[in-house]
Amino acid sequence: MKLRFLVFCLVLAMINLSARAQDNPSAVNAPSGDQINVGSGDVGLYVNPVGIHITNSKADTGPFAFLGANTTSRMFCGATFGGYVNFIHAPKFDAGIDFRDTIVTGNNANLNSFLVGGRILPKPIAEKFKPYLQASVGVGSSKPPTSPIHLNRLEFGIYGGLDYTLAKHVDFRAFEVGYGAVSTVNSGDFGGTTTFPSSRLLTVSSGLVFRVP
C-alpha cells in the first residue's frame, strides 16, 4: 500500500510539474520542437479484461505449488486497472509513464501485479491509430491454491499495443500483448529442498481507454 501511495503522489507531482512547464517557454527546445507538458488527451484511464498464460520450466510437486501439483502451465484471467500520463512530446514520438494493478486468478490461486513503467508512442501511422511500447517493473504478489499465504516478489514486463480513437475522449484498445516474469510462491519457499526459476507471463488484453480532457 505504501508503494502505491508513493506512486500516486509521484503522478500528481509530475502532472503539476508538467502543467507549470507548459506555461514556461524555457521548457521548449526550439531546435527540435521537444516539449514537456500535459495537454488534452495526454491522461488516460482504463479497466480492461486480461488473460495471462503462466508457465514454469519445472513442475512443483509440493503443497505450495502455485500452478497446482505437477503442473507447468495454466491460464489465469482477471482485470487490469490502470492509467497513463504522456508528458514528453517530440516531433516523432510522445512518452510518459503507465501505472497499473492487474489481478488474475486460476485454479484457486491468484496473482496481483502492481507495475509502473515508461511508455513511448511513435507518432500515429494514421490519424486514429496509436501504437505504443512500454517497459514496467513492480511487485507481484502470488497466493497458492492450497493456502492463504501471499509472497511478494519483483516483477517485470514488456508490453506493446494499439489504441484506436472511437470518440473525442474514448479509445478502443484493439490489443495489448506482453511478456514478463515473476518468482511465484512455491514449495521451495517453505522448507522445500528444490529451488524453482521465475514463472514466465504471457499477457493478452483488450478494452476501452478513457482519455481525460
Give a written overview of the molecule.
This protein has one helix at residues 2-23, and strands spanning 35-36, 43-55, 73-89, 93-106, 109-122, 129-143, 151-167, 170-182, 199-212. The protein is mainly beta. It has an eight-stranded antiparallel β-barrel with strand order 2-3-4-5-6-7-8-9. A hairpin with a 6-residue loop joins β5 (109-122) and β6 (129-143).
Keywords for this entry:
mainly beta, 10% helix
Topology summary:
Elements: H1 2-23, E1 35-36, E2 43-55, E3 73-89, E4 93-106, E5 109-122, E6 129-143, E7 151-167, E8 170-182, E9 199-212
Antiparallel strand pairs: 1-3, 2-3, 2-9, 3-4, 4-5, 5-6, 6-7, 7-8, 8-9
| Low-confidence parts | 5-31
Mean pLDDT: 86
- Our estimate of the beta-strand percent is over 45%
Global morphology:
elongated
Biggest sheet statistics: 8 strands, antiparallel, barrel
Q: How many distinct helices?
A: 1
Strand order of the largest sheet: 2-3-4-5-6-7-8-9
Radius of gyration: 19 Å
Series of secondary-structure elements, N-terminal to C-terminal: HEEEEEEEEE
User: How far do the termini sit from each other?
Assistant: 28 Å
Instruction: Give the helix level as a range of percent.
Output: 10-25%
Q: Count the strands?
A: 9
Structural class computed from helices and strand pairing: mainly beta
